[in-house]
Design brief:
Length: 435
């Protein structure tokens, strides 16, 4: 249960012991969102919603609630909440790049330049206004290239624009500076200027990016799960660099695309990850596509490692990240950003069903009911990707370590036979009685 810090501990020990003996047959949850997660929580056997100031065991909150309440809440041992306290170290665009740059620099110093090149998966990026002069130097080295400006703390494509001339951002620079006393995370609106990927991989002439889900249940040690499902988000307009002002060409966010004049809500603008993997395999062959997906695994793990020492690890916290990945014509994946609150609002029936499965499996892993052993490598659509080190597939002979058949336990875009797997894995829900 969660209480205000001034609340006493009376009865907590007895409650906890009773839970350990009998399993948690009633989970009290609080939810600050009104989309798919609310539906999933309502239908979970033995879970009961609490309102207002009621005591809760599980909280799916937005980041605003977290910022205002986390430091003032006392939490019992079993309580879980869906964000880490300073999640923004990875999910704010400027801080993500700052942490990745520092990580790459440390890697080069400790392991050499070749190892550090494994971190070359994010475009050249500068924070403005603080790195404006560094940006101008880089800009002048490659005249005529396209850059993209993004506000660091906004989402859904808001405030983004492309440019090729310095004068295009001079007005922004005049308005974009802030005094020192305003430089905190809620007031300052910094931007990042990023080299635009001018050669994106196109399907039917259209640009797309990938939304991939990674669940982190601990940073010390790092424990991360990769979801098999995900999707590609397509622009509704054919790609061209001649029209850099057309957001329907360059921004794949669903929030942007659904406002396009020719957007079809029935058809949508998404492919499921399995469909994309099949398409790429048919066109480029199995080996090349396996290399691509292995390169994406590298992005997920190294980006998490880059913030491992700065994230405030807390046993009460977990985080479901939405990674945005862009492919270029060489099938090289680029990390565009990581979202702390990936959209859980469905854009179609297929999207709704996928997000329900994703959230149900997230709750299975968080395991408020105490049905798991803690040694599982797969739970529903999630595969354990990292657990203090690389996790390998079950059917691998240890004698083959280092050989080509020693493969990691990741299956992004592969068959997701989750229902059968869950039937074999999970004990029935505890009897629905209240504690």
């Amino acid at each position: 249960m969660s209480k205000n810090k001034t609340s006493g501990h009376k009865g907590a020990y007895g409650y906890q012991k009773k839970v350990e003996r009998e399993g948690r047959s009633c989970v009290r949850y609080k939810c600050g969102l009104l989309n798919t997660i609310q539906e999933v929580l309502r239908h979970r056997p033995g879970w009961m919603e609490v309102k207002d100031e009621g005591e809760w065991d599980f909280n799916w909150c937005d980041v605003g609630w977290l910022r205002e309440n986390f430091d003032h809440s006392y939490m019992e041992e079993h309580v879980r909440i869906c964000h880490f306290r300073n999640h923004y170290e990875l999910t704010r665009k400027n801080l993500m790049v700052k942490n990745l740059k520092r990580y790459r620099k440390n890697l080069e110093r400790e392991a050499g330049r070749i190892e550090a090149t494994k971190c070359d998966f994010f475009p050249r990026t500068f924070e403005l206004p603080s790195e404006y002069h560094l940006f101008v130097e880089e800009f002048k080295r490659s005249p005529g290239s396209t850059w993209i400006m993004k506000p660091v703390a906004r989402s859904q494509g808001k405030g983004i624009f492309l440019f090729r001339k310095l004068k295009d951002i001079m007005d922004w620079k005049k308005d974009g500076t802030r005094s020192e006393d305003q430089k905190n995370e809620t007031q300052v609106e910094s931007y990042v200027a990023q080299r635009y990927i001018e050669n994106p991989y196109l399907i039917s002439g259209r640009k797309f990016d990938l939304r991939v889900y990674v669940l982190v249940t601990s940073y010390i040690p790092l424990k991360a799960w990769l979801y098999r499902d995900g999707f590609a988000r397509f622009s509704s307009t054919r790609f061209s660099l001649s029209s850099i002002d057309d957001q329907y060409v360059h921004l794949t966010n669903v929030a942007v695309q659904k406002t396009a004049p020719d957007y079809d809500p029935e058809k949508g603008c998404k492919w499921q990850m399995q469909q994309l993997r099949r398409y790429l395999t048919a066109k480029h062959g199995t080996d090349r596509v396996q290399t691509l997906f292995k390169d994406m695994d590298n992005i997920f793990v190294r980006s998490l490692q880059s913030v491992q020492k700065v994230i405030i690890n807390d046993k009460h916290c977990f985080e479901l990240y939405g990674y945005d990945i862009l492919l270029d014509q060489e099938l090289k994946p680029w990390l565009i950003e990581v979202n702390a609150s990936p959209s859980l609002t469905a854009s179609s029936q297929e999207d709704y069903e996928m997000k329900c499965r994703l959230l149900e499996d997230t709750l299975h892993i968080v395991d408020m009911e105490g049905r798991l052993t803690g040694r599982e490598k797969r739970i529903g659509g999630f595969d354990l990707m990292w657990n203090g080190g690389t996790v390998f597939k079950e059917d691998v002979n240890l004698e083959t370590m280092g050989s080509s058949c020693f493969t990691t336990n990741t299956h992004l875009g592969c068959v997701n036979d989750r229902e059968e797997q869950l039937r074999q894995l999970l004990k029935p829900f505890p009897s629905q009685k209240r504690i």
